[in-house]
Specification:
Negatively regulates transcription of bacterial ribonucleotide reductase nrd genes and operons by binding to NrdR-boxes. The protein has helices at residues 61-71, 79-95, 103-117, 119-129, 135-153, and strands spanning 11-18, 22-29, 35-41, 48-50, 56-58, 100-102. By secondary structure, the protein is α+β, with helices and mostly antiparallel strands. It folds into two domains: 11-41, no CATH class; 48-135, no CATH class. It has a three-stranded antiparallel β-sheet, with no helix packed on it. Strands 5-4-6 form a three-stranded mixed β-sheet.
Length: 154
């Protein structure tokens, strides 16, 4: 690391401490003895979302959160819970080392999470996400959901 005082190209690390988003390092120039602090951050590769029409856009956690908020309107679901779900979804995708994820995959993951948090929010989200063509297809989804719930309670 180049010294900010004398521009000498070499320095030694005196102290190193991790923080939430970076590693803080205290350095000392081997030539002039000047001390300075640097921060080392992990460079995140952008996560891309492939839409149904095959267009690609960058992943926007706020957009995902807003969709979930609409589903949870007038429901007893805390904002912190929804933010945690969005964070968990993004983290799990990044941990799989995926650079692209389909909007269908995102929707499926949101539905799985909402099913555990609030059943009404789950049904609301599913109704938009699945784009039901008629009432019978919506009722089929509800029947499947009810059957799954009965199987879990046994």
């Amino acid at each position: 690391m180049k010294c900010p005082y004398c521009n000498y190209p070499d320095s030694k690390v005196i102290d190193s401490r991790p923080s939430d988003e970076a590693i803080r390092r205290r350095r000392e120039c081997v030539k002039c003895g000047g001390r300075f602090t640097t921060y080392e951050r992990i460079e995140k590769t952008p996560l891309m979302v492939v839409k149904k029409d095959k267009t690609v856009e960058s992943f926007d956690p706020d957009k995902l959160l807003n969709g979930m908020l609409r589903s949870c309107e007038k429901r007893p679901v805390k904002m912190a819970t929804l933010e945690a779900i969005v964070g968990d979804i993004e983290k799990s995708i990044r941990n799989e080392f995926k650079k692209e994820v389909s909007s269908a995959e995102l929707g499926r993951r949101v539905m799985e999470a909402l099913k555990e948090v609030d059943e009404v929010a789950y049904v609301r989200f599913a109704s938009v996400y699945r784009q039901f063509k008629d009432v019978s297809s919506f009722m089929d989804e509800l029947s499947q959901f009810i059957d799954d719930r009965k199987g879990e309670k046994k």
